[in-house]
Design brief:
Length: 996
């Protein structure tokens, strides 16, 4: 009778129960294989750590005379580090195992209640052992710490089973299941509620592991011959089968030889490399085939099971608990039991397979030779009884295992697994002291115990006991090497500064796990620390080829390229929307910044209120790359995000990157305000230096030198050099000589040579300039000759042979006259500049020409120069347009542009003065224009133009003391003749012509 014929004869309730059992084993198999695929996760996984490093790039350059000055900015590189995670007990897997154990017990005890008296008593003995093994006293239900609870449960379950066995014999199997289910659920609820310990069901789950292992062992032995049974069926079921014996022998011998080679290879008896089958797949296949095999052997179990459906339910319960038990060990990363079951499955299939092959030949050899359908009578032997096969298969399995391993090792592995499962239980409850004790107990039974060593290392790491942590990893590496062990041990060496030992350890791990992307990435990072860039790049590229570390490898590849300024062609298009490539985009952009390469972007950057390290770094790198074109609304959003507490880790970076973009877009005032706030909060010398460079470019060397001095005190490189330049530019020559003298002793030979030259120039007199070269003559003209000494300037500048240097000296003189508000003299000097070929000088002349024309009110000339689209700075362009609009009577445009100027740049003195004059017409807010001048003087206290306007406005408003203070300062900054000229120009404002 086929299975489907039997199915038709079953009662409806029996079909429902079997369907339930089928779902149960399906779920158990899914759990088993899902855990196998994920193992050792989620217990041991990989933690990704982002190490953010700054890489400096030049975002802008400007010149002070012949000196080329670079303004640097930081881009951010993210290096992806991968380490083994702390051990994370899989509590969910423990509950799954407990559920499977409870359902299997439910089926077992319900089936036992249907047995005859002898088998019922045997089964109840098994139930008593099971309930006693759960060690229910450990959960301290009702405060009891003895066997009372176990005895009560034996009475309850035994009494109900006896009731169905002897009194209510006619009770259907479905009702028995329901009754025992209610009792199990009630027991669980009561014990959980009245338990004195945390998570009492987890204690029951761990204590149930021993019985789970025993039942799994029975089931593995029970199905170990099912594949050969399938061979018999395959070779004899066809009506016209030929050579059945030969076919059977070929399949069986090939199968057994492959299994034997697998076992020999696993036990290191042979070192052959060949294609082998996963032992856990063999178990799955055998278990599924066993369902059909159990049906074939149904006649052998008639004396035990009252119906075939009950027998199959018994088989399903065994199958489900086996897969749930092994699945639990996969899910909990129990390396010892996984290894033990691997050995057991192969050994059982080899031993039982050989014995069953002999069973088939002994009983049915002649029938096979005659090509008869042996599969129909396979379990009706005449020569060798089936029971004899069972006994001999157990002996054969033991013989296979004991030939290479002492049997007690497997007992120790099971015991050690039990104890480290208890360690997991307490570790999950944050009781690391008790967990440590159980892990140590586990190691007493089996030192080759990755799980326990790893658990102890995790505990010691939490205690910051790096010595013990490293020792545990070292022991684990020696006994049971794994990728997380190598990663964490290497990290331990690296954190102690032993980079070479860390690199050697990773190289050792790479030999064992040559395809591990995590190890290849770690090797790349190790070479990166050792400054071996080519090797680092090579291993990052190899890590990219691993599916698990593709993005990590690519991220670190671009990070290395950015850090070592290797010229790579970054993608021309970077997407804000590619969340999976965040690290790659950050580093590719940092690399582009280092090369001065502007890239394109797609998508909208809509950062959340809480920024990740990727989004924050991408935003900073974006502002550096797109400083002139960055969206102003995005800059505003970044500034808001920087103020949020959740973004404190990125606050400084966001503010400075936003400031760089603001400065590049002409928002100098805002950029300086933000940067000052960060500088004085963080105390970072680099930010003080950045502010000084901006001020120096804005023509404010006096204030710039104070920031450079602070930066120099904080050991910022080149700060003293920039300070010396600022002191020289601001005519503080005594201070400048001291600074250049210090720099002349620098270890940087080029810097020392230049400083020595500057010291020589600044300490020279006209009588000692005969042997000076062009560059020295230039600096002497710029810094040592008085503006009024035009004859000496003409004489010395004419001796400069290089036309561009000579022209630069003349341009610098024009700038000085213009800064002193001597527009006529500046215009006159400008006409004498000729013979240059430098684009930079041409640009400076065009800008001066525009500003002088605007100051003189030559509006046609201003309009013409604007229409030529020369390289005019944004603020100067807007200033000229504002003046034109005001002159042409377009007051709305003029007001708008003046409003922009006063908000954008309080270092731009011409804009401040022009805006102040314009808003002086406001009869409602008469102090508005005055406050603009005060703000300008705070920013640029030695501005002759602002001082003059401030004096006039102060007098007009009756602020005599303020006017007097500014007048005295102005008098110190300009010549006597210029001062008298200013006084004479405003007779209604001053009662005296001069104070000298």
């Amino acid at each position: 009778m086929s299975f489907f014929d039997s199915w038709k004869s079953w009662h409806k309730s029996e079909r429902i129960i079997f369907r339930f059992c089928s779902v149960l084993i399906l779920l158990a198999i899914i759990f088993y294989w899902q855990s196998w695929l994920a193992s050792p996760a989620p217990v041991i996984t990989y933690d990704h750590f982002q190490q953010v490093q700054k890489v400096e790039s030049i975002i802008h350059t400007f010149q002070v005379g012949l000196i080329n000055i670079a303004i640097p900015a930081d881009s951010y590189v993210i290096l992806e580090n991968i380490f083994g995670s702390r051990l994370q007990p899989n509590v969910f897997a423990a509950y799954i195992f407990l559920t499977a154990l409870s359902i299997s017990f439910l089926l077992f005890i319900s089936i036992i209640s249907t047995f005859t008296r002898f088998w019922f008593l045997m089964g109840m003995g098994f139930v008593m052992l099971f309930l006693g093994s759960l060690r229910l006293e450990a959960i301290e239900a009702f405060g009891l710490t003895n066997k009372t609870i176990a005895v009560v449960l034996v009475v309850l379950f035994g009494g109900l089973a006896f009731y169905f066995h002897s009194i209510k014999k006619e009770t259907t199997f479905g009702k028995r299941l329901l009754s025992f289910l209610i009792l199990i659920m009630a027991t669980g609820e009561i014990l959980s509620f009245f338990s004195k310990v945390d998570a009492p069901l987890l204690h029951v789950s761990v204590n149930g592991l021993i019985f789970g292992i025993i039942l799994s062992l029975i089931f593995v032995l029970m199905v170990s011959h099912e594949i050969i049974v399938a061979f018999v069926t395959i070779t004899t079921q066809r009506a016209k089968s030929s050579r059945s014996l030969l076919h059977f022998l070929v399949l069986t011998v090939a199968y057994l030889i492959n299994l034997s080679l697998m076992f020999a290879s696993k036990m290191h008896i042979i070192d052959w490399s060949f294609l082998s089958v996963n032992s856990f797949f063999i178990l799955t296949l055998s278990a599924v085939l066993g369902l059909w095999g159990f049906h074939q052997r149904r006649s052998m179990y008639k004396h035990l099971f009252s119906s075939e459906s009950i027998g199959l339910s018994f088989y399903c319960s065994l199958m489900s608990i086996t897969f749930a038990t092994i699945g639990y060990f996969f899910a909990s990363a129990s390396d010892m039991m996984i290894d033990a079951f691997d050995d057991l499955i192969i050994a059982a299939h080899v031993g039982a397979g050989i014995v069953f092959a002999l069973y088939v030949i002994a009983n049915f050899g002649p029938m096979l030779a005659k090509n008869m359908p042996v599969y129909k009578v396979l379990f009706k032997p005449e020569t060798m009884p089936y029971f004899t096969f069972r006994i001999m298969s157990v002996i054969a399995t033991y013989a296979v295992l004991s030939s290479v391993v002492y049997w007690k090792i497997y007992v120790n592995q099971a015991t050690a697994s039990y104890y480290h499962a208890y360690g997991d239980l307490y570790l999950a409850q944050k009781d690391d002291v008790t967990a440590e004790a159980y892990y140590l107990k586990s190691l007493q039974f089996r030192d080759q115990n990755l799980h326990a060593h790893y658990g102890l290392a995790s505990i010691y790491a939490e205690r910051y006991d790096s010595f013990k942590e490293k020792k545990e990893y070292e022991k684990a590496k020696d006994w049971t090497p794994s990728v997380p062990i190598y990663l964490n041990l290497s990290k331990s060496y690296s954190s102690q500064g032993d980079l070479l030992e860390a690199a050697l350890l990773l190289d050792e791990g790479k030999k064992y796990f040559s395809k591990s992307g995590e190890l290849l990435n770690a090797v790349g990072l190790s070479f990166l620390k050792l400054k071996s860039i080519d090797s680092a790049i090579y291993f990052f590229r190899r890590a990219e080829k691993s599916a698990e570390t593709k993005e990590v490898g690519e991220t670190n590849y671009w990070g290395a390229s950015a850090l070592f300024k290797i010229k790579r062609s970054a993608d021309t298009l970077i997407s804000f929307n590619e969340a999976k490539k965040s690290g790659v985009n950050v580093n590719a952009l940092a690399s582009a910044n280092g090369q001065g390469q502007v890239v394109s972007f797609e998508g909208n950057f809509n950062p959340d209120s809480s920024l990740s390290v990727y989004r924050a770094s991408l935003l900073c790198n974006y502002f550096i790359n797109q400083k002139e074109n960055a969206d102003t609304s995005l800059i505003k959003r970044a500034l808001q995000l920087a103020q949020k507490p959740e973004n404190d880790d990125f606050k400084e970076q966001l503010l400075i990157a936003s400031s760089c973009a603001l400065y590049a877009q002409g928002q100098v005032k805002k950029a300086l305000e933000i940067s000052r706030g960060v500088a004085f909060t963080a105390g970072d010398g680099k930010i003080f230096s950045l502010i000084g460079l901006w001020l120096l470019e804005q023509g404010n060397p006096e204030v710039a030198s104070t920031y450079f001095k602070i930066a120099a005190d904080r050991q910022q490189p080149l700060a003293l050099y920039h300070q010396a330049i600022s002191e020289t530019e601001s005519d503080s020559l005594a201070k400048a000589i001291v600074s250049w003298d210090t720099l002349s002793r620098s270890k940087n030979h080029d810097l020392a040579a230049f400083a020595a030259m500057m010291k020589k120039v600044l300490t020279s007199s006209p009588l000692t300039t005969v042997n000076m070269n062009d560059e020295e003559n230039y600096y002497f003209c710029k810094y040592k000759l008085a503006l009024q000494d035009s004859s000496s300037f003409r004489s010395m500048s004419s001796s400069i042979k290089e036309v561009n240097i000579r022209a630069q000296a003349q341009v610098d003189r024009v700038k000085k006259w213009f800064a002193l508000d001597e527009i006529g003299k500046a215009s006159h000097q400008l006409r004498f500049i000729e013979g240059y070929s430098s684009r930079k000088i041409k640009k400076e002349i065009d800008q001066l020409d525009l500003m002088i024309a605007a100051a003189k009110g030559e509006w046609l000339s201003v309009q013409k120069k604007l229409s030529l689209q020369s390289e005019i700075p944004l603020n100067q362009k807007i200033y000229a347009e504002a003046l034109l609009a005001e002159h042409n009577g377009n007051q709305e445009v003029a007001r708008s542009k003046y409003q922009y100027l006063i908000k954008a740049n309080n270092q731009f003195e011409e804009g401040i003065v022009a805006a102040s004059r314009y808003f002086a017409r406001d009869s409602i807010d008469r102090l508005k224009n005055f406050s603009l001048l005060v703000d300008g003087l705070i920013a640029k206290p030695n501005s002759v133009k602002i001082l003059k306007q401030h004096i006039l406005e102060s007098i007009g408003l009756g602020f005599e003391q303020e006017a007097q203070d500014s007048l005295e300062r102005l008098q110190r900054l300009i010549s006597d003749s210029s001062f008298r000229k200013f006084i004479a120009a405003y007779p209604y404002y001053f009662s005296v012509e001069t104070r000298k």
